[in-house]
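Incident log, support desk, overnight shift.

02:14 A customer reports that sequence design results differ from what the structure should imply. Their input is reproduced verbatim below. On-call engineer (initials T.W.) acknowledged and began investigating.
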């Protein structure tokens, strides 16, 4: 059973305002739905206008078109959230890319390296920098930055800039969590294992051997559903996780704990 099978009755986020980047798709979209269902005002930020708008409409939230690599647009995003709802309580800095030209270090060019660093790592720096002053004034806030299990585990199927960017997100989140803890602000890195998204489905439908090579490492024997990642974000966003800070919060089905998995 996954969280998608259960009726969500938690209302832990009533009156809180959440900014979600990459809210138009995948983990961001599932999280927009989940945080809205828990009572939060949700600001859906995405570079994809159609997807972001649709997400905001569905959850009764606000769409803001943002390229997370732009300092001005990121500043404006958090200002809009504050001006509209009066607070910025939750920042889920989640937008990210994993393009095919980011591959082995031997074949990945500097342009691809920099593009991935910009979207996956510099964006998190910009979002945290923009969100923190609002949270400092409130004396309250929860920042969740999407890293990945590849921040703590190596893969022979390398995406070198992606992996390095997620390691950066993890280290930055830890440091911010320590620096701002006594101001009532928690910062955690979320480290999902592989998630059953359309991209992954397409890739593995074409190449079942590629899927099998990965699934053998997951004790649960399947990929995560986006709703299962969203449930973890809702927990980290809520006061139920009030003593969880500066962590690498793994939601990986046990991959990182496994040696031999069940047959
Ligand atoms: N899917 C997985 O298996 C998996 C596993 C671990 C970590 N992650 C991480 O989770 C996050 C979300 O992944 P997903 O699978 O839901 O991806 P996705 O591709 O389904 O969604 C990402 C969203 O980010 C948006 N986006 C991309 N570039 C942007 C930019 N410059 N500015 C604003 N928005 C932008 C896209 O338009 C899209 O809506 C990413 O950081 C990813 O690295 C994913």
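02:41 Re-run completed on a clean worker. Output:
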């Amino acid at each position: 059973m996954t969280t998608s099978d259960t009726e969500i009755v938690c209302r832990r986020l009533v009156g809180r305002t959440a900014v979600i980047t990459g809210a138009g798709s995948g983990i961001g979209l599932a999280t927009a739905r989940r945080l809205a269902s828990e009572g939060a005002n949700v600001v859906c930020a995405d570079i994809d206008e159609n997807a972001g708008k649709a997400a905001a409409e569905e959850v009764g939230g606000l769409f803001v078109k943002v390229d997370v690599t732009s300092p001005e647009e990121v500043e404006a995003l958090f200002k809009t959230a504050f001006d509209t709802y009066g607070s910025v309580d939750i920042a889920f800095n989640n937008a990210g890319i994993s393009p095919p030209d980011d591959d082995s270090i031997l074949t990945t060019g500097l342009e691809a390296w920099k593009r991935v660093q910009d979207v996956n790592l510099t964006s998190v720096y910009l979002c945290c920098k923009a969100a923190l002053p609002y949270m400092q004034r409130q004396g309250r806030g929860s920042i969740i930055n999407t890293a990945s299990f590849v921040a703590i585990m190596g893969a022979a199927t390398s995406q070198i800039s992606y992996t390095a960017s997620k390691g950066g997100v993890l280290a930055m989140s830890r440091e911010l969590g320590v620096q701002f803890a006594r101001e009532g602000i928690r910062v955690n890195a979320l480290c999902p294992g592989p998630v059953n998204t359309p991209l992954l489905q397409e890739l593995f439908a074409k190449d079942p051997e590629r899927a099998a090579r990965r699934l053998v490492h997951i004790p649960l024997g399947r990929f995560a559903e986006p709703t299962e990642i969203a449930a973890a974000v809702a927990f980290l966003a809520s006061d139920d996780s009030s003593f969880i800070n500066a962590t690498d919060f793994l939601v990986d089905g046990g991959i990182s704990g496994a040696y031999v998995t069940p047959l």
